[in-house]
Amino acid sequence: MTSEIVHVPSKWRAKHPHGAHLNGFLEYRTLYEESIRSPDTFWAKQARELLSFTQDFHTTRIGSFQNGDNAWFLGGQLNASFCCVDRHAIQDPDRVAIIYEPDDPQDGSQSITYAELLRHVSRLAGCLRARGVRKGDIVTIYMPMIPEAVFALLACARIGAVHSVVFAGFSAGALQDRIVDAKSKVVITTDEGRRGGKVIHTKSVVDDAVKDCSCVSTILTFRQTGGDVPWTVGRDLWWDEEVKKYPAYISPEPMQSEDPLFLLYTSGSTGKPKGVLHSTAGYLLGAAVTGKYVFDIHQKDRFFCSGDIGWITGHTYTVYAPLVLGCTTIIFEGTPAYPSFKRYWEVVAKCAATHFYTAPTALRLLKSKIKKEEIECFDMRQLRILGSVGEPIAPEIWKWFHNFFGSNQTTLTDTYWQTETGSHVVASLAGVTPMKPGCASLPCLGIDLAIIDPVSGEELTGNLVVGVLAIKQPWPSMARTIKDNHDRYMDTYFNIYKGYYFTGDGAYRDHDGYVWIRGRVDDVINVSGHRISTSEIESALLEHPAVAETAIIGVPDNLTGEAINAVVSLKERENPIDIKDELILHIRRTIAPFAAPKAVFIVTDLPKTRSGKIVRRILRKALIGEREFGDISTVRELSIYWDFFRILTSI
Ligand code: PRX
C-alpha cells in the first residue's frame, strides 16, 4: 500500500480559472465536520440549493437504521424530470444536454439541447400515460446506450412511474424474472442495438422474455437499426409512430420526496437478484451533491461516464448527476475496443469531454494494448477530471490512467460506493483533496464512516485500523428497501452491526485518515491467522510486467485454514512453469511470505460478468472442485470459463 501523495496539479488551476466549488482542502474539512455534527442543517441547505421543490419540505429527516424506516424531506414535493430538464430548458434552452456518440464513429454524433430534451421526454411521457402507466407503476427498460434510454428514464419520472432498467446484455430469462417481479405493463426497448460492431437483438430478447408474462400489454420499440424484428400486432408499438401523437409539453406530476424513483436489480452474495428501491428527493440530492463536490461539475462541463445505463453508475453519473446540475452528458453506445483500442481517447477528444469516469477493468485492458505514441495525437486538453469506480484501482493502473488520459495534469478520483448507497460515499474531491494512487480517500460530505472490528462488532476509532466498512448516520440517497423483501434489506445491511449500515466491504484507515477499500469481506483471506485482502495481492501481481489480469481466491486448506490461489492471465505467452515460480517470489518479496499464493493457475482469460467484473464465485467453486456453478446467466462468454475449467482439470 503506497502512501505517495499526488497533489492537485498546478496546471489544473490554469484549466479551471474559476477554481473548484470548494476553496481548498480546509474548506472540505470544515464543511465535512459541519455535515456530520448537524446533518439535518447540512442536507436541508443542500436540498434547497440544488433541487427545486414545488412545495417546500417541513421535516428534514425521520427514522433510524434500527427500524429501517429512514425518510427525508417530508412534506416536500418535486419532480425529478423537472429538476433534470425543465429548469435548465427554461434558463438556457439551447444548452446541450446530451451528446450521443454512436458505436460506429462513421455514423456521426448527435447533440440534443435541453429544450429538445423537454419535448422528447414530454411526448414519451404522454405515450406511457396513454398506455395505462400510472403513478407508482413500474416500467421495465431494456435498451442500449442511446439518448432515447435517457428519455425513457426521465419520461417515467415525469409521470411518477418507477423505472426498472435491465442491462441490455442480460438474457431473456433474467429479463423475464425482473419484468415479472416488477409486474410491468409496459416494456421499452429498441429493434436492435449496436455494441463493439456487433448487433444486439434487444426486441427478440424482450419477445422471448415476455412469452409467459401476462402482465405486459405494451412493448414500445425505438427504431435504432431498422433491422427486421418479430412483431405482435396490438401489443407492439413503434416509438416514432406513437410519440408524435402526444404534446411537446406535459406538466410533471408532483411527487412526494419519498415516492420511489427507480428500482435496480443487483446481485447479493446469496439468493436471486434483489430489487433495490431508491427515493425521489434523497436519491437526486445524493447525485447532485456528489456531482457538485466530488466531480466539481459546472454547467459548461461535458461529462463522459462510460457506465452503462443498466447499472447504478449509469443511472447516477451518466444520467441524473450531470442533468440535475445542468451540464452536458455524453452517451457513448460502444466499447473501449471498437473499432480500435483508441476509442475512449477518440470520444474524449471529439466531444471535448471535461470529465472521464470509467472502471479499472477497462483501464487494465487498455493498458495492455495501448502504447503512448498511439494516443499522443488526441487533443485531451479539455479534460480536467478523471474518475474510477467499481473495484479497487491498483496504484499502477491509477498512475497509468492519470498519465495516459490526463497527461498527469488532471485530478483522478477513485470513487467508492454501491447500488445501495445511490451515490459516492468515499472519494477525493476533484481539485480539493490531495490524492493517493489506489486509495478511495476520504468520506464524502454527510457520510459518517465507521470501521468495525468484525469479531467484536466494536467500532475501531483512530487511524491505522483495519475492519469492515460501515456508515453511522443515515444519508439521503441510501436505498429505502429491497422490493417485497424488507426483511432481507434489514438482514443484509442493518442487522449485522446494530446501529450501522454495513457495506460488506473491508477497509483500512491509514495514518492520514485515508480509507483504502480492501474488497468484499467475503474476498478477504485468512492464512494462518493473517488476514490479507485479495485486492492487495492482485495489485501487487499487476505490478509484475507479465501479468494482464488476475484474481486471488481463498480456498480451504488443512494446514493454514485458507490458502491463497492466484488465477492469472498473461500479456504475452510465457513459459507457465517459470512464470509461476516468479510470481510467487514476487509476492513474497512485495508483500510478505504469508501472502504468497500456494498455487498459481495460468489461464487465457478470466470469467467476467457482462459489466466486466471478474466472477470469483466461479473460480472459487472450480478451485475447490465443485462442479455445480449455480446461476451463471450474468457471466460473459461462457467459453472462457470452460477454458479455465479445462486448464484446471488438466493440472
Ligand atoms: O465492493 C465494492 C465495489 O463494488 C461494490 C458495489 O458494487 P455495485 O453495487 O455493483 O456498484 C458498483 C458501482 C458503484 C462495493 O461494495 N466497489 C465499488 N467502487 C469501488 C469498489 N471497491 C473498491 N473501490 C471502489 N472505488
From TrEMBL:
Protein name according to UniProt: Acetyl-coenzyme A synthetase
Asked whether the UniProt record includes Nucleotide-binding among its keywords, one would answer yes
A GO term, aspect molecular function: ATP binding
Q: Which InterPro entries match?
A: Ac_CoA_lig, ACAS_N, AMP-bd_C, AMP-bd_C_sf, AMP-binding_CS, AMP-dep_synth/lig_dom, ANL_N_sf
For the protein in the UniProt heading, the enzyme class is ligase
Q: Which GO terms describe its cellular component?
A: cytosol
Where does the Acetyl-coenzyme A synthetase N-terminal domain start and stop, copy by copy?
Answer: 28-84
Similarity section? Belongs to the ATP-dependent AMP-binding enzyme family.
Report the PANTHER family cross-referenced here: ACETYL-COENZYME A SYNTHETASE, ACETYL-COENZYME A SYNTHETASE 1
AMP-dependent synthetase/ligase domain: residues covered: 86-475
| Domain AMP-binding enzyme C-terminal, first and last residues per copy | 536-613
Q: SUPFAM superfamilies recorded for this chain?
A: Acetyl-CoA synthetase-like
Q: Its Enzyme Commission number?
A: 6.2.1.1
Which keywords does this Swiss-Prot/TrEMBL entry list?
A: ATP-binding, Ligase, Nucleotide-binding
Q: Could you tell me what reaction this enzyme catalyses?
A: acetate + ATP + CoA = acetyl-CoA + AMP + diphosphate
Q: Which PROSITE patterns match?
A: AMP_BINDING
Single Gene Ontology BP annotation: acetyl-CoA biosynthetic process from acetate
